[in-house]
Design a protein that fits this description.
By secondary structure, the protein is mostly beta strands. It is built from two helices and seven strands; from the N terminus they run βαβββββαβ. The protein has one domain. A hairpin with a 5-residue loop joins β5 and β6.
Amino acid sequence: MLFHWQSQSTTSADLPTGQRYIHHREQGGRVVLFVREFKQDAAGALPYTYLGTAEYVRHTGSRPMSVIWRLHRPLPAKLWRQTNKWVVR
């Protein structure tokens, strides 16, 4: 499954952070994804949900970078309905 993610607005592919995303495997890095739909609700900050590890597939743009990651395991079933808008087909 592919997952689209957008970096911070200052990140570009030629800066160290962008290079770390692109070359994480070669550099021995590990990408771990967590998501949440909303930052907070009436009770306060909402928790993140662990999606698992992923690997870089490709990116477009700069400042911010739009990165496509390949998830190593399927998206948890409880997230399908609420995160379907995030799924790259």
